[in-house]
Amino acid sequence: MSASGATLRVGQPGTPCPDAAYSAINDAIKAASAGDVIEICPALYAEQLTVTKPLTLRGISVQGVNRVLIQPATAAPTVVPGAIAVITVLNTANVNIENLAIDAANNTVSGCGTTLSDIHYYNAGGTVANNVLTGAHLSDPTSCSVLFPGNGFGVLMDKDPAVSAPLALSVQNNSITRFDRSGVLVMGTGITADISGNNISGIGPATGANQFGVFLANGAVGLVTNNMISQGNCGAIDMDTCFTLRSEGVVLRSVGDGTIIDGNSISNVQSGIFANGANRARITNNLVRNVDALDGIHVQGVTNSLFVSNRIYNVGPIGPDASSNAEGCGIEEIPDTGTTGNTFVGNVVSDAFCGVAYVSSAWVDAGLYINTLYNELNADNYPDAFPTYLEPSAVASPPQASGLRRARRFRDLLK
What we know:
The chain is mainly β and 415 residues long. Helices cover 7% and strands 43% of the residues. It contains 4 helices and 35 strands. The longest helix has 11 residues.
């Protein structure tokens, strides 16, 4: 933002808003010059916004009221083909969105053909800070069954592959709720995202579709730190169905080198961190709790990366699937997925089938495993099934697990 930028103020008629020159946010956007600040007084604004120049949109407090709600009466298609968003930022940089409540609930979107999001940055960058993002909820969440990218996003950032200029987005200290697929989805080579200090809350497999807190993909590089992410456990859903509809806290899918996931608190998920395709990543100091159907940290296609000082609690249930599919470990590397050269040091796992299941090329050291049936398992030594899930005092033969079933389940995990 330019130091010489002007300040424009928006307020609804009949509401307190000193010096308001505009009653519609879109009118202020049209009148503003690059680098200007648009202050928005508390009120309900039934608008969709498109920003194509560097601006700051900032909700302000007036007479002790501090809520600016932007909620279209009916969300309509935007200037980005195949997309609907409450706020669209297009072909520009340094667009900052601050202290707003943004609600996309009034929509008729179903299926995967038209994306729905609260905020959509396309070929653009900037900052999203201190907002409430909600309502990116399809009329039928099950109508988009495609695992990636799916549909229904709090913040969506993507780009045209022909755009080569680097882009950066900061998503900080937001509350993100009632989304169908991802709280934050960032994808595209050349994008760097700082996703920090957010509270992201979903309901997991109860939606009938997969749900993810933070999803980085297709070459994006991320710094994902100090977020609180909660999704939803299987509950009354049977384990096979829950596995298919799994929710995950942070997902990496073919990300750029050097992505960092640090200091996050992730709970009530089917997998806390799902890393599928990364090099030189650092996954450190995360707290993962209450995991069912998969693992605390699931690793495939990951190379030369560090997994250090993560704390993982309550991974289960410990049952037949833990043996036949290696579910229920604190951390698990999947053999034969290109995983190699990773380091696991100082991780704490309590209440799980196993502490760390690793491939032979990994270095595992100084872990603390509390009430795990097995501490460390070399996954390469178990082509058909992991050891029995039964307590040592039980007199029973190990379950006859199918190696084909295990391989098929892990192929299903690929995103």
